[in-house]
Design a protein that fits this description.
There is one protein chain. The chain is an alpha/beta fold and 386 residues long. It has two domains: 153 residues, no CATH class; 217 residues, Rossmann fold, CATH 3.40.50. 42% of the residues lie in helices and 16% in strands. The protein contains 13 helices and eleven strands. The strands form three sheets. It has a seven-stranded mixed beta sheet with strand order 7-6-5-8-9-11-10, sandwiched between helices. The chain has a two-stranded antiparallel ribbon with strand order 1-2. A two-stranded antiparallel sheet has the order 3-4. The protein is elongated, with a radius of gyration of 25 Å. The N and C termini lie far apart (54 Å). The relative contact order is 0.08. The site of S-adenosylmethionine has 22 residues, from helix 7. S-adenosylmethionine (SAM) binds next to helix 7.
């Protein structure tokens, strides 16, 4: 642990771990958050990495430890490492140039410069005291000022839609998703940004043998796909999938989903990926859903499928229609399954879901939970009548 002072009693507690595993772990985490465009003040460990973590009341921030936390040389090295892991990426040829939108990068650089102004000001005065006032030409924050200048030039030249990069588990690479930056509801849907339940479902795929559930089946139908993180990630993690129906009830979500699939896979191979409007409450869409499921299940190469849904259980009035579709799906083949990731905002919503599933004679099992039961993944199968 980076702050463990007892780990290196003879040296500065942090300098010994500068090139160690914990530092690279911290940097990796910061880079992931940077690619997700997390507001820099909310990036856990960023202030700790720079030694600017503060004792603060919300309005009165006190940088109390800047001069004692790092020797100036260590801090300079850290400032450079952070630059290389964020706006200064790629560090070498061959590394892919994943970078967040320019506007976010500018906000990030400005935040770091502000932090450095405080911490370097305090370190510099300590160093000057020690060096008898000699000036140091090697200003470690110069890199950041240079980046700010070039980014400001880029910003003036372009208008850019907002996107985030999601790093997939293991070595499945990166997914780029155009989405809304903050607005939870826009164009009549909540689907224009990525919700935690999708991210958790993707994480679940990589845990232990969980991926077997999908590996054993060749096609997927997703309900409420929103802007398409789950579809994109699943298709990257499971290249054996022969058919993926990404469905949603809102055209704007479907448009965004299509853009994102194209961004990550090039022009859509429509024999593999099909983006379809399925409004759970619309009768015609219900008929279309039934046809899609039947055609896939009855085709020789596909057979049993997986129904996926992330954060689609949020409104009790929609649950009966949703469960009807689930039942239709599960009845199409004895080995078809549904995996539904629910964010728990309200216990009552889950109670209604469970009651409705029970009354539709399907089995459901809680197979994973995250964040102290803030979210649950259910595996839903056909009830076997013995
Ligand atoms: C909270 S978002 C989740 C989006 C995505 N699955 C995710 O996790 O990022 C809920 C999604 O359900 C869709 N939705 C809401 N009501 C629907 C309905 N009646 N029929 C079909 N989709 C619906 C919304 O358009 C939205 O994309």
């Amino acid at each position: 642990m980076i702050m463990n002072r007892s780990a290196a009693p003879d040296s500065h507690p942090l300098s010994s771990s500068l090139s160690g595993e914990s530092t690279s772990h911290l940097l990796r985490h910061i880079r992931q958050e940077y690619l997700l465009c997390r507001p820099p003040s909310q990036i856990k460990n960023l202030a700790e990495f720079l030694g600017t973590d503060t004792t603060s009341s919300s309005t009165n921030v006190v940088v109390s430890t800047a001069t004692t936390r790092y020797p100036v040389e260590t801090l300079s090295e850290r400032i450079q490492q952070l630059h290389e892991a964020s706006v200064g990426y790629p560090r070498s040829e061959g590394e892919k140039e994943y970078q967040p939108p320019t506007q976010y990068r500018i906000a990030f650089v400005k935040y770091i410069i502000k932090q450095l102004d405080t911490v370097l000001g305090s370190c510099e005065s300590a160093k000057r005291d020690k060096d008898d006032g000699a000036e140091d030409d090697n200003e470690p924050s110069a890199l950041w000022y240079e980046s700010l200048e070039s980014l400001s030039g880029m910003e003036a030249e372009q208008t850019e839609p907002f996107y985030r990069f999601y790093e997939l588990p293991e070595n499945f690479g990166m997914v780029k998703i155009f989405e809304n930056e903050r607005a939870i509801v826009s164009e009549g849907t909540t689907g224009l940004l990525t919700w935690e339940a999708s991210i958790e479902l993707v994480r679940w795929f990589s845990l232990g043998e969980n991926n077997q559930a999908i590996k054993e089946r060749k096609w997927v139908l997703e309900l409420g796909c929103g802007c398409g993180l789950l579809a994109t990630a699943a298709l990257k993690i499971f290249p054996h999938i022969l058919k993926y129906f990404a469905t949603d009830g809102h055209w704007s979500a479907l448009r965004k989903c299509k853009i994102n699939l194209e961004e990550n896979f090039g022009a859509l191979k429509t024999d593999v990926i099909q983006v379809e409007k399925v409004d759970w409450q619309n009768e015609q869409d219900g008929i279309k859903f039934g046809k899609l499921v039947r055609t896939a299940t009855e085709s020789e190469e596909l057979g049993p499928g997986v129904l996926l849904g992330a954060d689609i259980v949020f409104d009790t009035s929609l649950i009966p229609a949703l469960v009807d579709l689930m039942k239709k799906f599960l009845e199409s083949h004895k080995d078809s399954i549904a995996l539904i990731a629910c964010t728990v905002r309200n216990e009552e919503t889950l109670r209604v879901l469970k009651t409705c599933l029970e009354s539709h004679s399907v089995e459901f099992k809680e197979i994973y939970s995250w964040g102290d039961k803030n979210g649950i993944i259910y595996k839903i199968t056909r009830r076997i009548i013995s």
